[in-house]
TrEMBL record, chain A:
It is a multi-pass membrane protein. It is found in: Cell membrane. One of its GO terms (cellular component) is plasma membrane. Residues 281-392 form the ABC3 transporter permease C-terminal domain. The chain crosses the membrane at residues 21-44, 273-299, 331-354, 360-381. Keywords: Cell membrane, Membrane, Transmembrane, Transmembrane helix. Belongs to the ABC-4 integral membrane protein family. It comes from Hymenobacter lapidiphilus. This is ABC transporter permease. It holds the Pfam family FtsX. Its main location: membrane. Residues 50-244 form the MacB-like periplasmic core domain. One of its GO terms (molecular function) is transmembrane transporter activity.
Amino acid sequence: MIRHLLKLIWRRKAANGLLALELLLTFLVLFGLGCLVAVVGLALRQPPGFSYEQVWTLRLATNNDTLPQEPTLLRLQRQLGQQPGVEVVSLAMYSTPFSEYIMNSTATVAGQPPLIVAEVETDDQFAALLEMPLLEGRWFDRRDEAAGLPPIIINREMREAFFGNRPALGQRIRLQHALNENEKAEGRVVGVVGSYRPGGELGPPQPVVFRRRVPPADGTRMFAYTLLVKVKPGTGAALEQQLVRIVTAITKTWTVSATPLSDSRALALQTSLAPLLAVGIISAFLLLNVALGLFGMLWQAISQRRDEIGLRRALGATATDIGRQFVVETLVLTTLALLPGLFIAAQFPLLGVLGVSTHVYLLGMLLALVVLYVFTLLCTLQPSWLAARIQPAVALREE
Amino acid sequence: MTNLFASATDSPQPAAAPVAGPGRAVLQLTGIEKVYQTRTIETVALNHVNLTIHQGEFVSVMGPSGCGKSTLLSIMGLLDEPTSGTLELDGRPVQSYSDKELARLRNHKIGFVFQSYHLINDLSVLDNVELPLLYRAGVGGKERRQRAYAALEKVGLGARTGHFPSQLSGGQRQRVAIARALAGEPEIILADEPTGNLDSVMGEEIMDLLLTLNREQGTTIVMVTHDEQQALKTQRLIRFFDGSQVS
């Protein structure tokens, strides 16, 4: 029967061609959407490498004040940490989780090609506050004040890229600001943390290096600082107002804004999911077009092929056979349209373009196939049911 | 392979098959009524028809347009249900049969020939003839093709298997339709004005073909026709008027 239907489809190729093209385009868009969904789905299954619950971000703008900033920051950290409801306070400079500010540096290790890494300057409380898992060594502490070489901590991705199976602790790493050649630093690895993705679950896994930055006593002036505050469960707006009041009282001229890290995460997710939403909307429109095309084609086919339906019934087809024929015909047409689509989609993993894993492409293909087949089937059911209900005696009498 | 078409046309005077006494009843219609009802009009297409068709008979049905001939054929062919009355096929009433059972009976026992051929233009002659066998369980592709070839040989179109209906004359198309009916090796052929769309020469060819089929293969044929001359060549002529059998 499939061969019989293939002959019919081939002979009606002019009528079927446009719909097949539409199905092909829809498959390709759905494949893109499927890949995005796969990327997002796989990313969401991996933890970001830190905990964002009960953590607030206090963004401080120094507003060009002339006061020494270091004592102010130390006093702030101390005062805020003493508030009931506050567990830990960490000075995180500017590269906090979900922040748009990421400083990139070029890291080099003797005998290894340089690597672009994200650089985070922070203090001794950062890892504990964000509950970051420590894989090797330790986090920053007061012992580092006497260290000859500044301590640095790297994440899993950076460790794998530079050291593989070799020991990482004690290794020297040079850092050079990606945009400013004069800004250089060198440090010794004292610890390795797990995968830390500052962009959150949807952020790409990337090599990250952490540098110790307690409030500097060198008179450096910054336009802004960020404090992370871990609060106890159940605390709310009252504590937030209290913290803002303390900042205002201590800093006088600085301005402050407080945001829960969970809100920043929601915003980051929203931003990351926007392309997915856009492709989703395009896919929905394409699917709507395919639906209209399928409905139109099937309605036309049924009205033009009434005598064929009557004839087939006369020759021994049951009503179910007729309905099934239209469903199978459409599914065969869909399959024919998908073959070049699958060929095109297969080129992505074969050629290794876009640097996405084969797993993602396979999931994208599978998702696109399932959605298109299910959708085609749903669009075909009603017209096919109508075809099955045509009375053969009536259909054969019509000319 | 017997070429029914050749043997029919080679015969100078295709006479009606000799009547050798009635065989068993293959179709028995008792008190058949068919009423088409709309919201405002009730149309009686068949009015209390009692009719028996015996095995091996060639029966023609005549009557003016709208007298119920085609409705009768549809009911005999299990394509339509009577409003009342009983239809027996091979001695078994078919009223209680399911759609699947009726489809199976149509496929195995009945062959249809229509005035307008009802060929599928997108299929080749061979594929058109294979069509009834597609719905028959247990018949593979090879056997289907063999039987379709054989049926086309019988009607003298063995050389036209790859052609499409649009490439054939009206007479050839009707011969394809007859080959399609023959491919399923049915006991009964129901022909609804098979020569209605053909000129007289073509019409004669088709009529000779049906007569030869009936005579040589013993196929039971019920033919609706408007042509008195052709009707007279059959073993029995039934006349209808306003839904009733008048002779």
